[in-house]
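Study this fold:
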Amino acid sequence: MKIRSGWHSERVGQHVNVVRWGTLGRPVLLFPTAGGDAEECERFHMLDVLEPLISAGRIKVYACDSVSGRAWIDGGRDGAWKARMQSAFDGFIHHELVPAIRTDCRSADIEIITAGASIGAFNALSTLCRHPDVFRAAVCMSGTYDMSRWTAGQKGFDYHVSSPLNFVPHLAEDGAQLRLLRSRFVLLATGEGRYEAPGESWDVAATLGARGVPNRVDPWGPEWHHDWVTWRAMLPKYLDELTCGDQGGAPPH
């Protein structure tokens, strides 16, 4: 079952489309690539390969427009504005979309899996790291994690609090955020073919590992490129792992 919705968000200053596929199971928030919208994953046949998990009632897939992804690649804006939009988008996710997902799931505390490819992987990672009280795992595919390439040297507070490579090393050792993050799991899958940058996934793994955050890097080899063919192979495999057993399962070790 596919349900379209959406609303105007004052936080990001625009209408944001939201789509849901499925009726039962662990909620999965699937972030689009940089310029994508809420239905990008369907146009590129991701829902076709996820259909067995959806039909089995193991997952419900949610997607929204790539508000922050579009901001990062906007050549007419400066880095500070892009970082502010990323932070505003995080506010939309945490304060607007998460409550909507939980209402839809009829659960006030159900934990959500994030997922995404390319810039969508950055959003999946950042969302989990910023809100480990809400999100239980992240599936990050072919990720772009160093967003400084789009800031022209302009970073500031919003950039720092949005980029896990920047803020995770500085989380308080005795703080609730790091304690909860250490109970979560980040899966970093990357091809090694055209336009892939596996070094970025290893950099994230090193950053998380240094703070005791469980993670795993899966290199897929040089025949796997930065493309939907790769991501359609990856995501069903990992969501199957993460939702085994009790519709959520335990992080694979």
Summary: Confidence is low (pLDDT under 50) at residues 246-253. The chain has one domain: 2-243. The first helix runs from residue 40 to 43.
